[in-house]
């Protein structure tokens, strides 16, 4: 198997044609060498000539699902046809770095005790000030989890929770885990937490010392929330509403059984022992989530912590702002930042219908 066939990129999308076009332009610019499969359940018509052509490019497969297909079901069906040993899910408004994907594949090849690997990641917001795009960057938490036992890794993961969805996964294992989530009817919240918990139980989590992922900071919904909100009268619940929903006890019980079964197998525990570990780890996660939500209500957000830098950046000409944005964590400029910044700041041409 060639190096470019060792990883498959899955791009779930729903009614976000401008973001999808931007992603495909970026991937072409940086020369992403891996096959990309677009898992598209959009209800909006595909009118952009450029996007249609991009979807017909070599190494890109455009696959269609009914608009009513739940995101987890679509991912489950998409994973069923992945033949490569590794897979990564690329959100349609994110920017993954191909060099980091290659490094991640090599890392997992060399470290069979690791289930997933990711790297340095950031939220990047670009604001227009005096005609210049001024970037504001803040870390998007990605941690290494390397404890010896599955129970310790689960506890570490949930106590200091970060999202593992966008890490490079071992494809067969992710397919099995997603299948469990579908079987149990997990939606957005429970699916994300369950998948990350299973990742931590089934192996260690590695972090590359290089730029891996940039997520666009914005107030709009992501593709998953867009699907959930289609036709809905209200927005999805926040964490307060989530833990007080009528179905929370039954959903939590299903989550606990799913994760405890994996933990029991990995650490050779009884199910009662595994349930106790899952219970303690989950409620530490829930308490942290509620506390952070309360702080957000009180105005103490991560965004506030970077306001001083951002106010200063507004007084800096655009080019100097770019240089600061693409400066790496160790003080040296990282070339992988520039095409991401350019993709985020290039004004889109009109999406012309055929």
Detailed description of the structure:
The protein starts with 6 loop residues before the first strand and ends in a 9-residue tail after the last helix. The chain has 354 residues and is an alpha/beta fold. Strands 1, 2, 3, 4, 5, 6, 7, 8 and 9 form a nine-stranded mixed β-sheet that branches. The chain has one domain (3-345): Spore Coat Polysaccharide Biosynthesis Protein SpsA, Chain A (Alpha-Beta Complex). The chain has 15 helices and nine strands. It has helices at 17-30, 49-55, 71-79, 98-110, 150-159, 171-183, 188-202, 223-229, 239-244, 248-267, 271-297, 302-305, 307-313, 318-325, 337-345; strands at residues 7-13, 36-40, 60-64, 86-89, 94-96, 114-129, 132-139, 168-170, 204-216. The longest helix has 27 residues, at 271-297. The chain is 48% helix and 18% strand.
Throw out a few tags for this protein.
single chain; 354 residues; alpha/beta; Spore Coat Polysaccharide Biosynthesis Protein SpsA, Chain A
Pick out the low-confidence regions.
219-236, 300-323, 325-332, 349-354
CATH topology: Spore Coat Polysaccharide Biosynthesis Protein SpsA, Chain A
User: What's the CATH first level?
Assistant: Alpha Beta
Strand content: 15-25%
- Mean pLDDT value: 84
Q: Level of helix content?
A: 40-55%
Query: How would you sum up the global shape?
Result: globular
Largest sheet: 9 strands, mixed
Our Rg estimate from Cα atoms comes to 21 Å
What is the H level of CATH, i.e. the homologous superfamily?
A: Spore Coat Polysaccharide Biosynthesis Protein SpsA, Chain A
């Amino acid at each position: 198997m060639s190096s470019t066939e060792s990883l498959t990129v899955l791009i779930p999308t729903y009614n976000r044609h401008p973001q999808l076009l931007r992603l495909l332009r970026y991937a072409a610019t940086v020369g992403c060498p891996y096959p990309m499969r677009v898992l598209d359940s959009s209800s909006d018509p595909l009118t952009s000539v450029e996007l249609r052509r991009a979807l017909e490019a070599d190494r890109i497969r455009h696959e269609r699902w009914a608009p009513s297909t739940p995101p987890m079901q679509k991912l489950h069906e998409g994973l069923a046809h992945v033949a490569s040993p590794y897979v990564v899910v690329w959100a349609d408004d994110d920017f993954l770095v191909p060099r980091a994907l290659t490094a991640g594949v090599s890392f997992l090849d060399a470290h069979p005790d690791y289930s997933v690997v990711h790297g340095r990641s950031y939220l990047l917001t670009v604001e227009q000030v005096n005609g210049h795009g001024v970037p504001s960057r803040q870390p998007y938490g990605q941690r290494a989890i390397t404890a010896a036992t599955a129970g310790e890794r689960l506890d570490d993961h949930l106590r200091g929770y970060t999202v593992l969805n966008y890490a490079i996964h071992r494809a067969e294992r992710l397919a099995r885990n997603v299948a469990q989530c579908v079987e149990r009817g997990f939606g957005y919240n429970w699916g994300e937490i369950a998948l990350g918990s299973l990742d931590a139980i089934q192996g260690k989590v590695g972090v590359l010392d290089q730029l891996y992922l940039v997520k666009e900071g914005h107030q709009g919904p992501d593709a998953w929330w867009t699907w959930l909100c289609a036709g809905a009268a209200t927005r999805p619940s926040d964490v307060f509403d989530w833990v007080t929903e009528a179905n929370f006890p039954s959903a939590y019980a299903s989550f606990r059984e799913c994760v405890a079964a994996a933990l029991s197998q990995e650490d050779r525990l009884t199910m009662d022992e595994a349930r106790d570990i899952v219970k303690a780890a989950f409620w530490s996660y829930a308490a942290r989530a509620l506390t952070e939500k309360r702080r957000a209500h009180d105005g103490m957000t991560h965004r506030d912590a970077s306001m001083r830098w951002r106010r200063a950046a507004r007084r800096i000409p655009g080019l100097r702002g770019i240089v600061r944005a693409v400066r790496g964590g160790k003080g040296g400029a990282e070339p992988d930042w520039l095409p991401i910044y350019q993709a985020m700041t290039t004004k889109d041409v009109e999406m012309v219908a055929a």
